[in-house]
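Gliding motility-associated C-terminal domain-containing protein, Vicingus serpentipes. Tokens?
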Amino acid sequence: MKKLLYIFILFSFTVNAQVTISRQVIGSTGSYQVGTTMSLSSTVGEPAVQTLFSVNGILTQGFQQPSMNVDSIVTYEVINESCNGASNGSIFINSVLGCAPKADGTYSLLIKNVTDSSDQDNPAQLPAGTYNVKIIGLNGCYFFQLITVGLDSEEDCKIKFYSGITPNGDGNNDLWIVDNIEQFPENEIKIFNRWGSIVWEASGYNNDDVVWNGKNNSGNDLPDGTYFYVGTIDGETYKGWVEITR
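Tokens:
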């Protein structure tokens, strides 16, 4: 009997020599739990062991010990710097495994440029580069992540005016955006009607709190039609027209 069994085992081994079984969980027993400072996934058969640690910890248990990939811990979005010198790249953190966001749904970020160790104060005003980002969530949990902001164009930033605005309150094209003007804070913009009268003007145009929205300087809506602009930016004068359409 023993001899027959021995022969069967050898035969089976020969036939299946090319079969590889990857790491897997056998059986359905297990659970996954997330707390404010700890995440634990488990099956059966082994004590929990620590596989990753910052302030928060991630534990695994059973026959499923993973090779943890740091990129799978943090999910984030990056907007590249649009052109050389724009400093308008941005980083937004969606989630961190085992570290919940603050009550307002966001994470606090401490951003340091890897190249020169300089601190970056605004995650929405970043030049292209690689950053070491400390992500801080609820109850002080935190995690470090290297994030790279790319550069969409290696050309120097150039001023670009658009010839249309639709200030109807739908959130699309309600403001007259002048590309890259925020890189040249010494500027002045004047809007004229067809009779040559100034209807709106401002200094320090920045597409944010100083931006034309189709109203005159008194805050009243201007009628639809063609208007003309004169911009003095960094010592250069730009002229053209812009159409209001609601």
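The first strand starts at residue 31 and ends at 34.
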